Amino acid sequence: MVSLPAGQVSGLARALPPESYLSDVAGAEFIDWFARCSAAAQCRVTRAPLTELRQWRFDADTGNLAHESGAFFAVEGLRVRTSYGPVPEWSQPIINQPEIGILGMLVKEVDGVPHCLVQAKIEPGNHNRIQLSPTVQATRSNYTRIHQGRSTRYLEFFTKAGAGRTLVDVLQSEQGAWFLRKRNRNMVVQVAEDVPAAKGYHWLPLTELRRLLRIDGLVNMDTRTVLACLPADTFPASRPVPVGDVAAALVLSSTGQGTSLNDMGAVLRWFTEAKSRHQLTAHRTPLRDLPGWRGTPEQITHEDGRHFSIIGVTAQVGDREVAEWDQPLLFPKGRGVVAFVIKVIEGVAHLLVHARFQPGLLDGMEMGPTVQCVPENYPQGPPRFLDYVLTASRERLLYSAVLAEEGGRFYHSQNSYLLVEADDDFPVAVPDDYCWVTAHQLTRLLRHGYYVNVEARSLLACLQSW
């Protein structure tokens, strides 16, 4: 087994924002902790043929790939028909993980400053191996110990009543293009007592955790979705409103001050009308019967080489509940682009939200970013607004970072996350599937499940870092 390269640590030290809320001592403590975690992290991930994955089997009748225990997840087929978008019908593999996992963050106040208990977590699909994860990040199969490994640390704070003050507890979806109706319980629990940080864990100020979102590949997807679900007024910022039109407009957008172009009733009506306007049917089908997909002992791929593949890996990871295991992973072809166009309207920043159908979503449609795509998958031409966000001038680029997606199910999946300020000529009137919404309105919707998709939630967390 090999350790992570030290270059990741030195890069982090150089990238930490100079205006960090942390004191110099606290900042140095975090860097030292992350360096020690990186030096101690032992991880080896090797590709393996799908047919040789231990404890995984192709079903003789359907060709579906599943764990022999019947737990964890399975790779199945899906047939899709829709009136939405340029492609009316297609088939694809999809990950079926019906159980509900827990993404839980412990928080506590230290001298009036909210801190989050994060962990340095390794996943087999992480391109850089180690990322900042929530306190608990576990599927039901894992925390019920189907694998017969160690128990999940700090789980009791999220499963036992009275273990703390619950600030967030909501079911949210994950990638609707790759998961079939997958949901996780996003939770934030505040504790008053002293909870020691175990090895590989660190109490980090909330404001600093948000600022670390500026660093490529550091804060994982599960942390981002939990942070997005935390209402802005739970821990009000102690700093004054920043100077500058865009900065002030973003503060008003996030805190619910000022006037929104569309009130909440109008936003919900727009969304319901968008759902009603389009049709989508998605039916599970045997994996072996998928037109356009080819299966070999090594992997499952699309015949045109685009979209994604299903590959197998053997993972050896130190300090996990199980030290070694095999599993399939979804391997995307190309880096995606996820972007919000932001326009200041009457002094308040508005995000251009897209009503997006995805076949794996429980309700078919959720609110997504302005742009969400892998450009290589669109040979017929770029999706709407893609060229606009990719050609934005440096002055209009409010946020830009390459962030990773779920490393427990996806292999080296990364997206360029962008927040782009609209120029004066960008119209207020937008196509029917789009709507101007404030950040505060989206956060209010996140009190409920299945309104805002995971990519938009990640961008909301990125907006908090700005």
TrEMBL record:
GO molecular function: lyase activity
Top-level taxon in the UniProt lineage: Bacteria
Residue span(s) of domain dTDP-4-dehydro-6-deoxy-alpha-D-glucopyranose 2,3-dehydratase: 28-230, 266-463
Gene3D superfamilies according to UniProt: EvaA sugar 2,3-dehydratase subunit
Pfam families: Hexose_dehydrat (PF03559)
Protein name according to UniProt: NDP-hexose 2,3-dehydratase
